[in-house]
Amino acid sequence: MAKKLIHPVTVGAVLREAGGSVDIDRAVAGAMREGDSLGGIVECRADGLPAGLGEPFFDSVESLLSHLIFSIPGIKGIEFGAGFACAVMRGSAYNDRIISKTGETETNNSGGINGGVTNGNQLVFRAAVRPTASISKTQRFMDMETGAHHELSLPGRHDACFALRIPVIVEAAAVVVIADLMLLEQKVSRIQR
């Protein structure tokens, strides 16, 4: 329903890497052979967003998206546009130079958001998903009652990378936030039956 409300805005999320590798199938297969697990990076993009959604402080687009994305179990980080890479960039390299009267920019280091408000460019963010905790590989743990150290191996089927199933959830969360923002600004489409 929310996707119909935000039309013609489109939102899509994909798993970009697992365990630091873009060869996701191979990385997951290797972790499975070893009885281990991997985390991953999910990237979400929204095209066609109008400029002006969000607020510059408490209800910034980043704040609203982060709030909902962090409610997904296993999400441990989020970045927008250039994200953490901006910490080593100079302002002259980071700043998104406007190249058209429509607000199009040469780069999108800000991820489609300036000052907490959408700028009309593509919204881009990435979420870090932790590795699955329950694994077959033997691990050391401490018994909290006795203080004794033991080895633990959990037999059975375990997810080698539950990040494989996270993109559709991240996408749905982003659509809900965008729909809410567009409803607030009365920029929603009429739903066709």
Give short descriptive properties of this protein.
193 residues, alpha+beta, Chorismate synthase, AroC fold, 4-stranded antiparallel beta sheet, two-stranded antiparallel sheet, 5 helices, 8 strands, 24% helix
Task: Write structural notes for this entry.
This protein starts with a helix and ends in a 9-residue tail after the last helix. Strand 7 and strand 8 form a beta hairpin. The protein is elongated, with a radius of gyration of 20 Å. The strands form 3 sheets. A 4-stranded antiparallel sheet has the order 1-2-6-3. The chain has one domain: Chorismate synthase AroC (Chorismate synthase, AroC fold). The chain contains 5 helices and 8 strands; from the N terminus they run H-E-H-E-H-E-H-E-E-E-E-E-H. The protein is an alpha+beta fold and 193 residues long.
